[in-house]
Amino acid sequence: MTGVNDMMTKQSDDVIVKTLSRLLIPFMQIYALYVIAHGHYSPGGGFQGGVILGASIILLVITYGLDNALRKMSEKLNTILCSTGVFIYAGIGVLCLILGGNFLDYAELDQILHVGIAQARSLGILGVEVGVGVTVMAAMISIFLDIATGGLPSKEKNIQGKRA
Amino acid sequence: MEIVKGISMILILVGCFFFATGTIGFLRFPDFYSRMHATGKGDTLAVLIALVGLSIYHAAYHGAILDSIKIVVVAVFVFLANPTATHAISRAAFRCGVKPWTREGSK
C-alpha cells in the first residue's frame, strides 16, 4: 500500500493526461493573465486570475509529480512571490499616501506618471490587481503543497541534495 | 437571417437533448463506469453543439465576431478537457478497485 506522499512524488504514467496537461497549461496561464488584465470592465480580476494561475501549477504537480513541479516553482520562490504581491498592493497604496492623497487614491499617481487622472486610476487598479493575482497564486500553491506533502518541509531539501 | 436563426435554434435544441440524455444516463445507469460514460460523452457533445449554435446566433445578430471566436475557443477547451477528466477519474476508480457492474453480480 503506497502512501499519499509516494503517489504525489511519482509522475503519472498516463500518456493521455500528461499530453493534455502539457498542451493546456500554457493556454491556462495565458487565460489567467487575460482575466487579470481585463478585470476593470469584465468579470474577473486579481483573485480569479490568480486562482487560475495557481490551478495550472497544481495540474502540473498532479500530472508530472511533485519533484518535477518543484523544480519549476520551488517553495522558496513561492514564499517570495507571496510576500511580493502583498508588497505591490501595499506599496501602491502607500505611494498614493505619500503623494498627498488617501490610501489607494489612484488619482495622485498622475503626479509621477503624467498620463491624466483617468489613465492614472486605470493603471493603479491594474497594478493592484497584479499584486493580488501574484499573492493569490502563491497562496493557492502553498496550501496545495502543504496538503500534498503532509506539511513536511523536507521534500525540497532532498531534491537539492540530489542535484548537488 | 431567419435561416441563420433557425440553424442556431436547432443546434441549441439538439445540445439540450444531449444534455438531457446524459443526465438521464447519469441517474439511471447501474454503476460508476457507465455513469461516467454517459456524462462524459453526452455532456461533451452537448456543450460543443450548443456553444456552436450560440456563437452562430451571436455573430449573426450582434455582429461581434470576436465574442463568437471566444465562444468557439471555450467549446474547443471543453472538447479537450472533459474527456480527459472523465478518463482520469475512471482510471483512478479502476485502480482503487471499483468493480464494474455485471448481470450475475447485481443480485
Explain what this protein looks like in three dimensions.
The complex is a heterodimer of chains A (164) and B (107). With 164 residues, chain A is mainly α. Chain A has one domain (4-155). Helix content of chain A is 77%, strand content 0%. Chain A has helices at 4-9, 15-37, 46-72, 75-98, 110-113, 117-149, 154-163. In chain A, helix 3 crosses helix 6 and helix 4 (75-98) runs antiparallel to helix 6. The longest helix of chain A is centred in the last third of the chain and has 33 residues, at 117-149. Chain A is elongated. Chain B is mostly helical and 107 residues long. Chain B has one domain (2-106). Chain B contains three helices and no strands. Chain B has helices spanning 2-28, 32-62, 65-95. In chain B, helix 2 packs antiparallel against helix 3 (65-95). The longest helix of chain B is centred in the middle third of the chain and has 31 residues, at 32-62. The radius of gyration of chain B is 18 Å and the shape is elongated. The interface between A and B is small, with 7 and 7 residues.
What is the β-strand count of chain B?
0
Output the number of helix runs of chain A. 7
> Which structural class should the secondary elements of chain A be placed in?
mainly alpha
Query: H/E element string of chain A?
Result: HHHHHHH
Helix content of chain A: over 70%
The portion of residues forming beta strands of chain A comes to under 5%
Spans of at least 5 consecutive residues with low confidence of chain A: none
Class by SSE composition of chain B: mainly alpha
Count the E strands of chain A: 0
Low-confidence stretches of chain B: none
Query: How is the biggest beta sheet of chain A arranged?
Result: none
Q: How many domains of chain A, as an integer?
A: 1
Global shape of chain B: elongated
Count of helix runs of chain B: 3
Question: Rounded to an integer, what's the Rg of chain A over CA atoms?
Answer: 19 Å
Largest interface: A-B, 7 and 7 residues
Return Rg of chain B in Å: 18 Å
Oligomeric nature of the chains: heterodimer
Shape, per Cα inertia axes of chain A: elongated
Biggest sheet record of chain B:
none
The arrangement of helices and strands of chain B along the chain is: HHH
